[in-house]
Amino acid sequence: MTISIIGAGLSGLLAASQFPEAQIYEKQSREIIKSHRALLRFRSDKIGRALGIPFKEVTVHKAIWSEGNFIKPNPKVCNQYSLKVAGTIEDRSIWNIDTCKRWIAPENLHELLLERFNDRIEWNSNMAWFEKQSATDNVISTGPMYNTLNFCDTIKYDKEKYVFNKQKITVRRYRVPESNVYQTIYFPDPSFGVYRASLNGNRLIVESIDNDSFFARGDEDSIIDIFNCFGISMTELIDCITQNLGKITYFNDIERKHLIYEMSRDYGIYSLGRFAIWKNILLDDVWNDIEVIKQLINKNEYELLKNNLL
Ligand SMILES: Cc1cc2nc3c(=O)[nH]c(=O)nc-3n(C[C@H](O)[C@H](O)[C@H](O)COP(=O)(O)OP(=O)(O)OC[C@H]3O[C@@H](n4cnc5c(N)ncnc54)[C@H](O)[C@@H]3O)c2cc1C
């Protein structure tokens, strides 16, 4: 029995650390794979300790800026925020602006892991894993669910009803040398392309929904407003990256779970990471899911039923 990992993003590489025999297949090349640029905070330092990469404990303060003022969460702005990032009304992180403790990984976490597992990664290999797979192999897929389903032709679902809605996001990072604080401001106003900006130590990370109307309004003006909200003046731009798979919107949860179950039962494909399971989870959750997948792969059906894992 072999184990293949599809994707050398953060989820795939976290899985690689727990499955030392697994081969990793990545469809992009080493040169163009994009490292994670959006905000990355952890609820604990469990992953850092397991990887032997120190995470930093920080205190995060949050606020909401709407119509020229800092305000408390209320249904209007929280629903506006959700519509802005997801196109639907759901409970999102904006509802909770309590000060909290978080852990921050080194900025180059993805690069560190790519270097660590480089010998096990087969680059430019979109289909290679599928062609090599035999009936007894197990696959941990971190690729988007709608793509993985294409490999599973016996699994039928209503494509009209279960639509994989996604929004592109653009992440701009600025250097703020004098800063050593961790703060997030949400921007729910629909007239403003930016939905969240965070001071992350000496970086300002500005995330915006990538749509034409935002650029029509004048990007640079919005950015200056954001610096003003943090009480700092505009600084040097480090980089600006657009991510096709940014924000995702869920469809029916029972159907979603059923598709994940069918892929593992019928094809030995275990889905891992937010795009594979089509849910906005954090890497702390991915880490827990790796443990569950380990048990699913290693135990027989009787043991799984006994432990309520099926
Ligand atoms: C705006 C934003 C903010 C976030 N904030 C946080 C946060 O604060 N804390 C946190 O823990 N998480 C956060 N996340 C989530 C975290 O960043 C993501 O979960 C993580 O980066 C996604 O990594 P991934 O490996 O699951 O997916 P990806 O990075 O998409 O990696 C999947 C990889 O699979 C490859 N692939 C796809 N299909 C195939 C195929 N058929 N064959 C081979 N390779 C394939 C792709 O090329 C890609 O490299 C955030 C995400 C976003 C978008």
Provide structural commentary:
The chain is of the alpha/beta class. It folds into two domains: 1-40 and 106-162 and 251-310, 3-Layer(aba) Sandwich (Rossmann fold); 47-104 and 165-249. The protein is built from eleven helices and 14 strands. Strands 3, 4, 5, 6, 9, 10, 11, 12 and 13 form a nine-stranded mixed β-sheet that branches. Strands 7-2-1-8-14 form a five-stranded parallel β-sheet. Strand 11 and strand 12 (203-209) form a beta hairpin. Helix 1 crosses helix 4 (109-117) and helix 1 crosses helix 10. The longest helix has 16 residues, at 283-298. It is globular, with a radius of gyration of 20 Å. It starts with a strand and ends with a helix. 31% of the residues are buried. Bound molecules: flavin-adenine dinucleotide.
